[in-house]
Amino acid sequence: MRTLSRQALEPGMVTGRDVVDRAGRVLVPAGTPLDEKHLRVLKTWGIDAVWVEGSAPRSAPELPPREEERLRARFRHADLAHPLISELLEQARLGARSRVAAEDADVS
Q1: Could you report the per-residue pLDDT of 34-72, keeping only the tens digit for each?
Q2: Closest of 47, 45, 19 to residue 33, by C-alpha
């Protein structure tokens, strides 16, 4: 079992523990496969992280050095130790990986 930020959750993931609001009410019971409706509920109630079943995901493929340098240049004045900035950088990397994969598919 591992904990993931709400932004990292995907439909089909299974909750490892009950997801509760601040008053202790169960919003999503443990063992529930998440769908889009659950993800909206979590956002609405301000849930930041959820325990999910399964082990840690495989590490993401590395970005080409040129892409990593481009992202580092964009974030050069940011505090990368700050959780929000760190998450923004990771989201930018995900977008860059998608873009690189699409470009590679177009070349093939």
Answers
A1: 999 999 999 999 998 898 987 555 556 678 889 989 999
A2: 19
